[in-house]
Design goal:
Nuclear Transport Factor 2, Chain: A; NTF2-like_dom_sf; globular; 125 residues; 5-stranded mixed beta sheet; alpha+beta; DUF4440
């Protein structure tokens, strides 16, 4: 495993851990400023909309696992194909479970850190 591959795997692990802890600021720090997310049934959206939606979830607990199926580094860009299983549990409610694949493009920025630049999330209930 190369240093870049290890760093990208760490981005995914940090994202998952921060999501479990409700640490939105850490998650936002793992994104480029011009990040674009694509999910079924919605127009593509960026970092501000992601943050607003996350804040709108209130005390909902997020848990999940990510399995990187494919990872390729192409210079200062890389892509990963993940299999994700997650659950979002609102306070006093039942968990909403989703699973499926994502295709994520990451960019190595000027500070040497890898960040999510584009993400196509195909999780289904």
């Amino acid at each position: 495993m190369t240093e870049d591959e290890a760093a990208i795997r760490q981005v995914v692990e940090t994202w998952m851990t921060a999501s479990r802890k409700g640490d939105l600021e850490t998650v936002l720090g793992l994104m480029t400023e011009d990040v674009v997310f694509m999910v079924p049934g919605k127009e593509p959206f960026g970092k501000e909309a992601f943050a607003a939606a996350s804040r709108g979830m209130g005390e909902t607990k997020i848990d999940g696992v990510s399995d990187i199926v494919e990872l390729n580094v192409l210079g200062d860009w890389a892509y990963i194909r993940n299999r994700i299983e997650m659950a979002a549990t609102p306070p006093g409610g039942e968990p909403v479970r989703r699973s499926g694949y994502t295709l994520t493009l990451l960019k190595k920025e000027a500070d040497g850190r890898w960040r999510v630049a584009r993400d196509a999330n195909l999780l289904a209930g």
